[in-house]
């Protein structure tokens, strides 16, 4: 059913149009409120006696690609209530129409607020000019700050995690309502006392999903002793993988002996590998000094004081985690390796031709990178004693040992077979980690206690001890469907908002943009 468009329908409700003038760039519309009375802000009594009138100039939504300026003929009323301290007051309009002292209508203010939430300051101001809503970046941020965060219903299942103000220097805390899938609070730091104070004000919380950090565990235990704590499953899988990598690093000497590569011939190394090998020799001297002091009964603190090395370095040496000879770096060919493998299997063995095809797919590397890959691939197909002379890095060995044999080249298969034949404890560590991953995937919580006993006698005993300390939360992670993955996703969104503002946002503005937009 068609309806007639009247001029009054383009202005906020409750007003009638008296005149409209278009001067080319701006449309000026004079309006007057249709109500006969107004409520006194002091005593809430209705007043009908008009004292005087004045004009208010307001910005409104654009019309026909032009800015709109409303001239509101506002009235001043006399309050006749004897007990009211106000003799004269300015008529009030609905909050969804026009706020007192406002220079924009409520519907334009809502658009400005949404622009500020979505884009921040300068980008939103630039976009607003294109929408014929001229507003400065400072005004946009003021509107976002003034409206703040909407109230949230009391949560019963929350996720808590830290996020970086500045990586490795300053951190904050984010708290999410996992049932409603939205963030509800940002805290200025990740101290246990700060998180505890907030959690203590929410006694209805029944489940707290968190990472394996000790501060949040302590805060939840003190503030909500009856709440169920759930460890994050992704972090558990990641920690287990790191534990196996540490086991490989501890076993590098045995791996080199098993592969017959305990002695490296520097004459066969490339220039880059020779630099790495020289660094390895310097590290070995430092490692020998630290290990000799430890065998003499010196504590870590004494070794740090006497040698000048950091506590972390000393701990890594004592744990056997500083024995890699060569470092592995991610190649620019990494996104194209699957395509290169398919081309190689199809018979394309010419490096120049492969490079030209890769350039058509957007590869920006040079010919040398592809030529070196083809040379390494040819050598990889010749599995002989010489191919085992250089031991891969610990990270590469960990990856190969956890990859299916069907996906390995002939040379890689021989390498792993040599390791498995000479380093039996590493095979047991791999089996323990695989059992842990399978336990989480199958949600087999009853296998946790036997797994801990088995793992304590393997190379991943340090990881097993950590699991034993946090056994209840890890058991809940295996059995419960709650996880902290939602919180990790909100942290990614938080980082985007923070970077949009070039890292200059204070906590109130960051919280308003993140939570207000949700």
Automatic annotation (TrEMBL):
Report the InterPro entries cross-referenced here. Answer: Transpos_ISL3, Transposase_DDE, Transposase_Znf
Task: Report whether DNA-binding shows up as a keyword of the record.
Answer: no
Query: Transposase IS204/IS1001/IS1096/IS1165 DDE domain spans which residues?
Result: 158-255, 377-513
Q: What keywords appear on the UniProt entry?
A: Plasmid
* Alphabetized Pfam families for the sequence: DDE_Tnp_ISL3, Zn_ribbon_ISL3
The reply to whether Membrane figures as a keyword in the UniProt entry is no
Superkingdom field = Bacteria
Q: Which residues form the Transposase IS204/IS1001/IS1096/IS1165 zinc-finger domain?
A: 38-81
- Please give the name of this protein: Transposase
Q: What is the lineage of its organism?
A: Bacteria, Pseudomonadati, Pseudomonadota, Alphaproteobacteria, Hyphomicrobiales
